[in-house]
Each structure stands twice: as C-alpha cells, then as structure tokens.
Design goal:
This protein is of the alpha/beta class. The chain has 6 helices and 14 strands. The strands form 3 sheets. The chain has a 6-stranded mixed beta sheet with strand order 1-2-3-4-5-6, with helices on one face. Strands 7-8-9-10-13-14 form a 6-stranded mixed beta sheet. A two-stranded antiparallel sheet has the order 11-12.
Length: 210
C-alpha cells in the first residue's frame, strides 16, 4: 500500500491518495482548494501512472470536500460518504459563504457507505467504522493487513475532533473513539484529517482528551 498526503487549503487539511501495485488509486477527503493544489494532485496522478477509481469521505465539512468539483470535472468521479453526512454535505456552499471562501458546485453523491467489515478500495479491504461525534456521519477506514487507520477529524495526534459544529456531540465522539478506535492494535498508524501521523498506542497513553 502506497500512501501520499497532500496538506492543502487554508485549514491545512490532509487529503490522502492511496494506491496498489496495480496502480489502482483512491482519494480520501480531497480538500484541494487552489488551482495550484489541484494541478499538483493531477500531475502526481499522471506522473505515477495511477488510475483514480473512487473518492470517499470520512465526513463532509468544507475543508474535506473543496476538491470534489475539480475531481468530478477531471476524473468523472462522485463522492461516497455515510448517509447521515448528507445534510452536512448539502450545506457546503452556505458554509463556504459564511467563511468568505469560494463556493464550489459539488456533484451528487455516488452512494452511501455503511459500517461494514470489508469495503474494497484500490485492491485493499478496509473495515468501515461508524465514528460520529465530530459530525453526524463520520466514518473511519481501517486496513488490518497494513495496520493503518484513516480517522478523518475524529482522532488526532494528541487531540480529538471539535464538537461545537452542527451535528457534533462530545460524549458521542468520546464513545466512538473508545469503542471503535482504541480497541485496534497499538501499532496501528493513524492518518488524521489534520496534523501528523500517530499510533493508537501513543494516543491511548498520551492523548490528554482520552
């Protein structure tokens, strides 16, 4: 499994590109905001001969979806997300206006992702974990074989997701982390929506919010 992180947009959001030996690729939370960020992503795809097959969202806050219009125009792909995240996704334009940021024309969702043990992405099987609290339909993607977790804005290095946005709930978030994430092997690498890479073991021992 190859993983490349693009840290993008004014919120310093981590967009993850994942691909296999066969060059099949997926992107998680494409937050590409500027033309330069979009160009860099497209060039990386071309230079590495990747075939982008799917776009999945851990959740639909604007910093995680800015690049969806670009992805749709360039690659013809629509995003997959959890159904409970639909209201957040549909409010993207309004929220962008509130922040004084560009308003994009987001494509219709391709479909909905429910919690499940096996979810195939780019030749890999991921376990989809329903982890609400930061947003109502937050999901995390865990691959046991490679020991990696893509947690969105649920769990960070030394921190947790904010819960003061619409649909957020602190106790729900803590429950999601404790029941779904902290039970994973200590060595599991955590790729978060912001900040650096951490491990489940490190967060169990050192995260002040847990």
């Amino acid at each position: 499994m190859e993983i490349h992180c693009f840290t993008v947009n004014p919120f310093s959001e981590n967009s993850y590109l994942i691909w296999s030996e066969s060059k099949k690729a997926i992107v998680i939370d494409p937050g590409f905001y500027s033309q330069a960020e979009q160009y860099a992503f497209k060039e990386f795809i071309l230079e590495n001969g990747l075939q982008l097959e799917k776009v999945v969202l851990t959740h639909a806050h604007i910093d995680h979806i800015f690049g969806l219009e670009f992805i749709f125009k360039e690659f013809g792909l629509q995003p997959w997300m959890n159904l409970y995240e639909k209201p957040v996704y549909l409010s993207g334009g309004q929220i962008s206006q509130m922040y004084g940021m560009n308003v994009f024309n987001y494509p219709e969702p391709a479909g909905w992702i429910d919690e499940q043990l096996e979810y195939p992405l780019a030749d890999f099987n991921f376990e989809v974990l329903f982890t609400p609290g930061h947003s109502p339909g937050s999901i995390s993607f865990y691959n046991k074989e490679h020991g990696v977790l893509f947690s969105g804005d649920v769990l960070f290095e030394g921190s947790i997701g904010r819960t003061d946005l619409p649909g957020g709930d602190h106790m729900t978030l803590i429950s999601s982390i404790q029941k779904k994430l902290l039970i994973l092997p200590h060595s599991t690498k955590v790729y978060s929506g912001h900040g650096g890479i951490t491990t489940i073991g490190q967060e169990k021992m050192c995260n002040p919010f847990l």
